[in-house]
Amino acid sequence: MTTTTTMGDVTSKDGTTIGYHRLGRGPGLVVLHGTMQVGRSQIELAQALSDDFTCYLPDRRGRGMSGAYGPAYGVERETEDLHALLTATGARYAVGISSGAIIALRTALTSSALDKIVLFEPPLDIAGSNPTDWLPRFDREIAAGDTTAALVTGMRATRMGPPIFMMMPRVLLERLTVMAQKRQERDETDGEPTFDELAPTLHYDVQVVAETATAGDPVAYRPVDAEVLLLGGARSPAYLRMALDALERVLPRARRVELAGLGHSATCNASRRGRPERVAAEIREFLI
């Protein structure tokens, strides 16, 4: 397992700098993080794959080592960022996580730069399964500086907390969130930004979901020619499993794996309740 990382950057089509961490040896593999994350959010997953692949962990625009979102932000800018990295590194494989999976899928749809992609729980809105109408409230709370309230709004809307959280009074959930924020600030040692720092980025991931919403089965993705591994956790919210179901029906070269006992945090570092070694085993089997 390789643990030494180096840093680099590429320039996207609109001039935005996209910074990344690099580690490992072998064929190039881009690991594209999801919502409320940066490149290092999957560093342990990359380490578990580093004996077989050269892993690239970009910070998506608006985060970490990368440039700002820019006034023309949208899913097209994100696909341009990924394409720039693939071109510069020669990587032909990608793992897209959550919103990063939507970007990897869109990139495979619009170019032939990828031979194989792993899509971990893309949060596609399939016929209203993942609505984004809560975003104005979230934006108001961020603008008012009430990050705790915004985090609770986002967590409830995306159904990312334990099921019991959905039944709790909001005031109690906000108190628990404050405790979690304080604990994270005290204990954070792995180089990841705190939830407080990442909270404003959620707006842009929700924008990606809204732009790619479909009225039914996502038939637009049928032309994707890359081999695809559809990966998800058995304990993840139903709308994420629904998106994988829909993609399984339309992608011509896809296979599906469900990870028993795991949820949406499966790819994360262990400190964020991830099981990176287990996820890496499925990715390795698919890519090799």
UniProtKB/TrEMBL annotation:
State the Gene Ontology terms under molecular function: hydrolase activity
- Which InterPro entries does UniProt cross-reference here? AB_hydrolase_1, AB_hydrolase_fold, Carboxylesterase_BioH
- Domain named AB hydrolase-1 is located at 29-281
- Bilayer-crossing regions: none
Is the Cell division keyword given for this protein?
Answer: no
Signal peptide bounds: none
Q: Superkingdom, according to UniProt?
A: Bacteria
Alphabetical UniProt keywords: Hydrolase
- State the Pfam families in the record: Abhydrolase_6
By its UniProt entry, which PANTHER family does this protein fall under?
A: HYDROLASE ALPHA/BETA FOLD FAMILY, PEROXISOMAL MEMBRANE PROTEIN LPX1
Its recorded name reads Alpha/beta hydrolase
Q: Report the source organism.
A: Nonomuraea diastatica
